[in-house]
Write a structure and sequence with these properties.
The protein is mostly helical. It is 41% helix and 0% strand. The protein contains five helices and no strands.
Length: 121
């Protein structure tokens, strides 16, 4: 990224931005922090990135993000209990019934006719 000594031109802005990003990421800075680096050469940008990272208390490049695929799963995954019946049993074990079967039988049928009619009047 050195400027051309024969023409004394500054590097293209895209090349300078790429050099900032490389120096900043190598020092553990974010993309936004890397955009603030000052310098025209790789060495200047690297020195500025290291000084900036030291001011922020960063020790090195950030750890890569954790993988979102696979990983630990629940206790009920993969143990052959993937059927609807097994799921219903697990639900019943986790949520016990509050109404006993005898109480369920005593409930009245909402469609049953009442014991009186209006014709008796």
């Amino acid at each position: 990224m050195e400027p051309n000594p024969q023409t004394s031109e500054q590097p293209h802005p895209a090349v300078l931005e790429l050099a900032r990003l490389r120096a900043g990421l190598a020092a553990g800075l974010s993309v936004e922090q890397s955009a603030r680096l000052q310098g025209a050469t790789d060495e200047e940008l690297t020195a500025d990135a290291q000084a900036f990272a030291a001011e922020l208390g960063l020790t090195g490049p950030p750890a890569p993000p954790a993988s979102r695929v696979g990983g630990p799963r629940g206790s009920d995954v993969g143990n052959g209990a993937g059927t609807v019946t097994a799921g219903a049993e697990r639900f019943r074990a986790k949520h016990p019934q509050r109404v006993t079967p005898a109480e369920q039988q005593r409930q009245t049928n909402p469609f049953r006719e009442n014991g009186y009619t209006m014709e008796n009047r």
